[in-house]
Specification:
alpha+beta; 3 helices
């Protein structure tokens, strides 16, 4: 019987979407990497792979990107307007269902 690898959430920082990834939060705080990717994966290598291809998680237990966002909270945005502007992208299973 094969054992399942343990999954965990990783935060990856980027200069732009799909560009110049790092896990060093200092890059974010210094303002060089303003995009953050929240990725659920079994390893950092897999997290980088999923982030680079922007492969979204299909449900809460699946590996994949959960949220991609710039630091939209510094502007005059709400989560909804940030999503409309492309500054915040969430996995389809996390999106609010419209009535």
């Amino acid at each position: 019987m094969a054992t399942a690898k343990r999954k965990r959430e990783y935060t990856i920082y980027a200069t732009d979407r799909r560009a110049n990834f790092t896990t060093k939060s200092v890059a974010y705080s210094q303002g060089t990497h303003r995009w953050t990717y929240t990725v659920y994966a079994t390893s950092i290598k897999q997290a980088y792979y999923l982030a680079g291809r922007e492969t979204f998680a299909t449900d809460a237990g699946a590996v994949g990107v959960r949220v991609i966002e710039s630091d939209w909270w510094h502007g005059d945005y709400t989560p909804e307007t940030a999503e409309a502007e492309g500054l915040r992208v969430v996995a389809p299973y996390l999106q609010k269902k419209k009535p």
